[in-house]
Amino acid sequence: MENLEQMEEPLTQPAVQAEPAVQEEPAVPLGSRLVIRGTISLFPSPDDPGEFDQRAYYEAQDILLRITAEEIRTEGRAKRYPVREAARKARAWLGSGLHAVFEEEDAGILRALLLGDRSCLSEDLSDLYEAAGIRHVLTVSGLHVSLAAGAFSLLFGTLAVNRSVFGSAVKRT
User: Fold this and answer.
1) Which residues have a Cβ under 8 Å from the Cβ of 85 and sit 6 or more positions away?
2) DSSP code, position 9
3) Does the structure show a pLDDT above 70 at 62?
4) What is the pLDDT of residues 92-112, one digit of tens each?
5) 11 within 8 A of 42, measured Cβ to Cβ
6) β-pairing, 3-5 with 65-75?
């Protein structure tokens, strides 16, 4: 069993922070079973007026408990998901290509629109989309772009085959 991480402080923010630089391989393979040993507790209520209320914030998201992890390790062999793994690698490759070609903010927007990945959007830009009520458009657009690309590929691929098959049978005058 491999010890992956030691955590001393309770989690008050997401444990995983996205970075523009895409790792080649994730630290924990897709399909791994994790064993987490630690202490489960409620989120604290604010001590002072005006202080951020973690308990209310997380309860609004239906998250009632937190764990202070003392040990995180993998157990057994990872279940294989070859199609998902290939999709993850393709998405990572395309995302890193966008970051290589475009400036950071533009790459983040394109990554959200084309790949449905909002993790590289700046917080300010994400807040602007949220305030306008169109943040969901970024992820939904990624799905639609993928579906449209697949449909065009299928359509134009079929037309190209038909032209090559039937093109030689038509005489030009």
Assistant:
1) 30
2) S
3) yes
4) 888 889 999 999 989 988 888
5) no
6) antiparallel
Q: Is 168 helix (H, G, I), strand (E, B) or coil?
A: coil
**Among 55, 48, 41, residue whose Cα is nearest residue 9:** 41
Neighbours of 72 (CB within 10 A): 19
The answer to whether the pTM exceeds 0.85 is no
Mean pLDDT over the full length of the chain: 74
Cα–Cα dist 105/122, whole Å: 7
Q: What is the pLDDT of residues 65-81, one digit of tens each?
A: 999 999 988 888 778 87
The backbone region for 13, taken as left when phi is positive above 0, alpha when psi lies in -120 to 50, beta otherwise, is beta
**CB 98: neighbour CB atoms within 10 A?**
19
Q: Which of 15, 12, 24 is nearest to 72 (CA)?
A: 15
The Cβ of residue 81 has, within 10 Å, a number of other Cβ atoms equal to 13
Q: What is the pLDDT of residue 25?
A: 55
Task: Decide: 95 and 117 in contact? Cβ < 8 Å.
Answer: yes
- Single-letter amino acid code for the residue at 77: R
Instruction: Return the CA Rg of the chain.
Output: 23
